């Protein structure tokens, strides 16, 4: 090594992280900065804009209720998805943590397998369950319970269903990681001091697993609110979310300044949620959940 | 044990309910996927139920679909390169983050996991706006670097977690015996990191192979990756061919990590046996 350098010299550390830092600067930070500048550019016609600075995009966004509607709907769908995920996801997480089943690893592996299966495939596979030729409609028709197929696909419910399917493993793993870190003797202690099982859960287990639940809620909310493919495949035009609006504005209308404005709005809105969360809980739980 | 065997009645009922909901959640997670796999062998002309008979014709049709084969090749090599490069970068980054103290380390650590937290739509648009601003066309290289960035957080987190468990004194012992920095890393740290390296490479491969939203923005005109190809096929109709394609994709992306995992397990066992013999 170079003379005069310490064993763990900060300069060496910088050299090691330099390639990744460069990549992140060029592909993550610079694009967001350029996008922020683009929001002030003037839109001329599809695909053409000038660097003439204007507030027109922001005025349009702030005054047009069309955009507000999209934003509210996106936040609503994201929040609903995250909450349902938390309610449904807590049970399996608790079950895997508490079970005495010998092959616990299998249950965990089954939670990880969906991460390996293409998101697009997992999403469109819902068409086989909910669609007109889906298993539910075909079964009900055969049984004579209905005369014509129920309209389940291309609704907001189908979109939320698809998002749940995609996000549940994130939630379950987050809660599980947090449950795993609980000292089990605390629960025995509570029980031996006369708590009923319900009290022990309410007073000990639940509060100690809240960090994982919180991280799961944030992750599910952010990923649901930023989704593009699910509403595209499982929703009708009315169920489009903010991500679809951004895609259409840029790829369809070729209105780059407005598309940039909408992206920055989504980034700031989701960033506020994340910042509020990290202020109270810190980043570490999310890191644990992602790496779990 | 705090498991289901709670003393009181309330606890037993709660435990049964938990088990039941867990079962439902697992069914919920796998029923649609199983339906797709089953339907890929269905003889019916339409891609849905009811089942009319067993057939492999949709797989045969797939093999003669030039567009699909092209998309498969594109996705495959992008995913392979992403896996190799991201794993290498991830190891170096994790090493710096675990072994060194440097100003700005905490900020850098957060920056590295950011691509996993920012919605892909935003990352997608951002990069497009940037290359439009500097008047560059979309290219495969750009798509590749984008995939590397998307996979990086996961690789760094996995490698970091493993690296924390490897004591630095091992490396320092090698150094004090005259090994160079590089060879101490190669001979001591890297072999101990193997499980994390394999896990990272597999995960990076699947992340790239499956990536949809960002690829829709970044792919050069006329280039389709596997997921974007499926999306454009879905715009036309749910053909049985898509079910077959989906099944093949599932086999690739689930099969490779599973086989990799078992091979790793076998390798560790083998090495233990060899070590045991050597010590005897």
Task: Provide a descriptive summary of the structure in words.
The complex is a heterodimer of chains A (292) and B (280). Chain A has 292 residues and is mostly helical. In chain A, 74% of the residues lie in helices and 2% in strands. Chain A contains 14 helices and 2 strands. Chain A has helices at residues 10-38, 56-63, 65-98, 104-116, 119-124, 127-130, 135-142, 156-180, 184-192, 197-225, 229-234, 242-252, 256-281, 284-291, and strands at residues 42-45, 48-50. Chain A has a two-stranded antiparallel sheet with strand order 1-2. In chain A, a hairpin with a 2-residue loop joins strand 1 (42-45) and strand 2. Chain B is mostly helical and 280 residues long. Chain B contains 11 helices and no strands. In chain B, helix 4 packs across helix 6. The radius of gyration of chain B is 24 Å and the shape is globular. The longest helix of chain B is centred in the last third of the chain and has 40 residues, at 240-279. Chain B starts with 8 loop residues before the first helix and ends with a helix. In chain B, 79% of the residues lie in helices and 0% in strands. At the A-B interface, helix 1, helix 3, helix 4, helix 5 and helix 6 of A face helix 1, helix 3, helix 4, helix 5 and helix 6 of B.
Structure keywords:
heterodimer, A: 292 residues, mainly alpha, two-stranded antiparallel sheet, 14 helices, 2 strands, 2% strand, B: 280 residues, 11 helices, 79% helix
Please tell me how large the radius of gyration of chain A is: 24 Å
- Gap between N and C termini of chain A, in Å? 36 Å
Strand order of the largest sheet of chain A: 1-2
DSSP strand count of chain B: 0
Q: Ends of chain B: how far apart?
A: 39 Å
Shape of chain A: globular
The total of helices of chain B stands at 11
Quaternary state of the chains: heterodimer
Q: Using DSSP, what is the number of strands of chain A?
A: 2
Order of helices and strands of chain A: HEEHHHHHHHHHHHHH
């Amino acid at each position: 090594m170079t003379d005069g350098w310490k064993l763990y010299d900060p300069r060496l550390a910088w050299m090691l992280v330099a390639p990744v830092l460069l990549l992140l600067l060029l592909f993550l930070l610079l694009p967001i900065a350029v996008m922020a500048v683009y929001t002030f550019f003037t839109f001329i016609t599809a695909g053409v804009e000038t660097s003439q600075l204007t507030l027109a995009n922001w005025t349009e966004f702030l005054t047009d209720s069309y955009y507000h509607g999209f934003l509210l709907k996106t936040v609503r769908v994201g929040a609903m998805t995250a909450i349902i995920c938390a309610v449904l996801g807590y049970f399996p997480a608790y079950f895997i943590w508490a079970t005495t089943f010998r092959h616990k690893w299998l249950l965990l592996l089954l939670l990880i397998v969906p991460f390996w299966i293409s998101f697009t495939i997992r999403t469109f596979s819902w068409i086989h369950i909910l669609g007109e030729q889906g298993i539910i409609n075909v079964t009900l028709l055969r049984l004579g319970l209905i005369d014509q197929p129920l309209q389940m696909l291309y609704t907001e419910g189908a979109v939320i269903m698809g998002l749940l399917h995609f996000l549940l493993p994130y939630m379950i793993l987050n809660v599980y990681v947090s449950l795993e870190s609980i000292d089990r003797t605390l629960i025995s202690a509570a029980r031996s001091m006369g708590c009923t099982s319900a009290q022990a859960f309410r007073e000990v287990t639940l509060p100690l697993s809240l960090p994982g639940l919180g991280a799961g809620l944030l992750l599910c909310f952010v990923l649901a609110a930023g989704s593009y493919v699910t509403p595209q495949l499982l929703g009708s035009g009315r169920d489009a979310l903010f991500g679809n609006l951004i895609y259409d504005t840029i790829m369809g209308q070729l209105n780059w300044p407005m598309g940039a404005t909408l992206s920055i709005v989504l980034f700031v809105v989701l960033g506020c949620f994340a910042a509020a969360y990290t202020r109270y809980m810190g980043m570490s739980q999310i890191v644990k959940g992602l790496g779990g | 044990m705090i498991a289901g065997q709670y003393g009181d009645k309330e606890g037993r009922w709660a435990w049964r309910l938990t088990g039941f909901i867990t079962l439902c959640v697992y069914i919920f997670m796998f029923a649609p996927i199983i339906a797709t796999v089953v339907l890929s062998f269905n003889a019916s002309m339409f891609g849905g139920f009811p089942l009319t008979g067993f057939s492999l014709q949709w797989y045969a049709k797939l093999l003669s679909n030039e567009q699909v084969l092209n998309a498969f090749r594109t996705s495959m090599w992008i995913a392979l390169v992403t896996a190799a490069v991201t794993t290498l970068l991830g190891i170096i980054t994790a090493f710096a983050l675990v072994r060194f103290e440097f100003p700005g380390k905490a900020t850098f650590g957060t920056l590295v996991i950011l691509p996993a937290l920012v919605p892909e739509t935003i990352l997608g648009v951002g990069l497009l706006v940037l290359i439009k601003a500097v008047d560059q066309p979309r290219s495969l290289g750009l798509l590749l670097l984008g995939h590397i960035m998307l996979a990086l957080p996961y690789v760094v987190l996995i490698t970091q977690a493993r690296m924390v468990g490897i004591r630095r004194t091992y490396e320092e012992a090698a150094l004090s015996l005259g090994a160079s920095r590089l060879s101490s890393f190669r001979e001591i740290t890297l072999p101990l990191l193997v499980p994390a390296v394999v896990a990272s490479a597999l995960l990076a491969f699947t992340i790239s192979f499956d990536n949809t939203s960002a690829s829709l923005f970044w792919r050069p005109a006329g280039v389709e990756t596997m997921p974007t190809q499926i999306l454009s096929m879905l715009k036309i109709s749910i053909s049985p061919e898509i079910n077959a394609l989906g099944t093949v994709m599932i086999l690739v992306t689930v099969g490779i990590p599973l086989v990799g995992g078992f091979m790793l397990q076998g390798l560790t066992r083998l090495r233990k046996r060899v070590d045991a013999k050597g010590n005897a």
